[in-house]
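Problem 12. The chain below contains 486 residues. Write out its predicted structure in token notation.
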Amino acid sequence: MKKAIVIGAGIAGIASAIRLRNKGFEVQVLEKNTYPGGKLTQIHGSGFRFDAGPSLFTMPNLVTELFEISGKKASDYFNFEQLDVLCNYFYEDGTRISAHSDINLFADEIELKTSDSAKKVKQHLAKSKFIYHATEEQFLSKSLHKISSFLSLSTLRSLLKLPFLNIFNSMNAVNESAFKDSKTIRLFNRYATYNGSNPYKAPGILNIIPHLEFGLGAYLPKGGMHEITNSLVHLAKEIGIEFHFNQEVKAITTGDKLVSGVVTASKKYAADVIICNADIHTVYEKLIPSAKKLKEVDKQERSSSALIFYWGIDKEFPELDVHNILFTENYQKEFEHIFDSKTIYEDPTVYINITSKRIKEDAPKGKENWFVMINVPSVYGQDWDEMIAQARKNILAKISKNLGISIENLIVFEEQLTPQLIQDKTSSFKGSLYGTSSNNRFAAFFRHKNFSSQYKNLYFCGGSVHPGGGIPLALNSAKIIEKLIK
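Solution.
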């Protein structure tokens, strides 16, 4: 039986391991941390549970099919519910918009609360659906670096649709042409942050993202996002995959156009195939420094990072839902700070995720578990202690203003996740959440390929390579690798 080593037990690494095991490989997963999941983990404290990383779940079929290809019934391991309200939006003038999953209700809400019509909203979401169906098969499910991927009728159809996919205009320019109210424009510009990008620079093709929520649905796993990790690890072990934690890979051993195994501090592992679920920069810098490093890996702009406060709140807020956004008035200025000045804007847009709205055991009775996040720059030698302290004050002031109550005295538990910690815990270069940003119309083609051109049995998955960051794309990278390995 051929042997495969997966470096990193992030969600893409686990999915790759399951797919290779089902192809007949003997699979071992090596993880430097003492736990699986990468960014998709959880923390506990004072009776509260928090999902530590990704908080939005879309395209659950990419998870459930891993059980199905393993001959298992997904619902025996993993369950989830669809959210009827995708997000509550708060604006500085007191306007509050509920983004219902029902497109008609959402469109009516926009017409009632802004100067934009319901018809315009439906047209915009129809265009989002068009972009998804025009690109999903070719650009999200296949390698963009194999000639064979382009030799098909579906590819020809996709290429013929390129002029209609807004690739040559920025996301903001497309949204400004579709809407006239800044509230609506900000709401749709926000989707650029789903892969750590700037809507004022990123191409309009990113307007594909709203369809993932409004067209395909947003969900919450029973037990929280971390149950994605738990259930897949359970499945992986059940089908014979071995996990080795606290085993940081120090190097990949190479030969004549082949990789032959990996080395940790305590052991050598032989392998016929190696899959790296680690930031591609880290792979080249630390694991195969003798390899020919592609110059574009470091040339590309890094994605944004995140500053997260995990707050146990001694009160319940009925006006908040699972997902909530408190917008800044000057959205463009916020992104200029993040990507140009590499600083945190004084009035940041604040995201609050509260899983205890649906998962009651995530917080003690009468309390809520707040995952409070703002988008921030990656690590470039800034004075993070000062920046974080000031950001915390600004975030508390903003939330208190929007909710009409002082929040700080309600905090009974607190932890933080900073860009430096993201860098240290997940080996994400400069603490960027999604590898490189999409602030370039050709960013999709510049992302690193899912295979090595120098070593034919070395493959790459996860958010820093094609097709990109976020749970659905990371899971798709595992599917692409499965197709590449004969």
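Discussion. The longest helix spans residues 118-140. Students who got a different answer should revisit the alignment rule from Section 12.3.
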